[in-house]
Amino acid sequence: MSNSLLITETEKILNKSIKSIESPLQGADSSVLICSLDDSSEIVLKYGEEVHKDLAVINILNESAYKKIPKVLGDFVLEEKTCLITDKATGTLWEFCDNPDVYIEEVLVEIEKIHQVTSKYPGQPFYIDQGLKITWIDFLNRRYDGTEEYYKWNNVLKNQRVNTQLLKKGLEIVRSGIKSVSVPQTFSMLHMDLNDRNIFIDEQTKEITCVIDWTDSVFGDRLLDLARFRLLLTHFYPDSINTYWQFNKFAHEEKKLEEFYFLCICLDYVIWYSEGEDWDYLERHEEILSEVIREY
Q: Which residues form the signal peptide (predicted)?
């Protein structure tokens, strides 16, 4: 779709003119535009089939104590896709900070704050709002038995570049292990994509100023979100793994469950890297997956 339709509708809602447009590095499931307005301010347009999920999460967070989120200026639906209009985050994208590894502990503190937002029910906030409630065990089963639309394991197993024996073994362990997962009494907000392209930092104060891209967020066990973050560290900040363990100080049973969730996340990223045809990352990732599976 032409950007002109997005621009026209945005200008109507804001009653301001857009003077210039920049296209930053794009995500996998949406389009993002940074727009300069006639009053010299900047806004962000996020448009796509999954953006309504961002909006549902941000609406929940606006009612919570957690405020390091984009300010929503408006939203609309165009050609059955949602466009979210927000202000532009202040600070430096974590990826572009000098010495980004020095911010690991600050990010872990921020994750704790996000996890303080809770729900009685697990799952994606948008669907919970629609009255579609499931158990935490059902949520996990749907991901790894292929029920969820994105998690088509049979398709991945047909990919000749994927180590199918390794993937089958991992799926076998996870499918068997889910039935023994302990279920938390309340469910935390999990970002599920906390990486160095979704966090802005004030380099002078080391304060995190904004967390963006809440599309994948769910309510669930906080240990799943932490395992997802540990995978980021394993790939890109391996020298910070000790900081992760020292900060979290998991009890024995928590550590075992976090390690199980880490295996789950490793399986997820076989899909991600194979679909994106990131073969170098896939090869490195399968090495990590192999190391994890050996522990079982």
A: none
Q: Answer yes or no: are the C-beta atoms of 52 and 126 closer than 8 Å.
A: yes
Chain-centre distance of CA 23, in angstroms?
A: 21
Which residue is associated with the tokens 């799926």?
171
Q: How far apart are CA 266 and CA 274, in angstroms?
A: 12
pLDDT in tens, 245-287: 999 999 999 999 999 999 999 999 999 999 878 899 899 999 9
Tokens 């490793």 belong to 266
Nearest one of 114, 99, 104, 110 to 243, comparing CA atoms: 104
Domains and CATH numbers, the chain: 3-87 (3.30.200.20), 92-294 (3.90.1200.10)
Token pair in block for residue 152? 């088509």
Q: Quote the CA–CA distance of 41 and 18 in Å, as a whole number.
A: 10
Crossing angle, helix 252-275 and helix 279-294, to 10 degrees?
A: 150
Instruction: With beta carbons less than 8 A apart as the criterion, state whether 28 and 20 touch.
Output: no
pTM above 0.90, yes or no: yes
Q: Classify the phi-psi angles of 229: left when phi > 0, otherwise alpha if psi is within -120 to 50, otherwise beta.
A: alpha
Largest CA distance in the chain: 59
Q: What is the per-residue pLDDT across 111-168, written as a single tens digit (0 to 9) for each?
A: 999 999 999 999 999 999 999 899 999 999 999 998 988 899 999 999 999 999 999 9
Distance of CA 158 to the CA centre of its chain: 26
Integer Cα distance of 136 and 121 in angstroms: 8
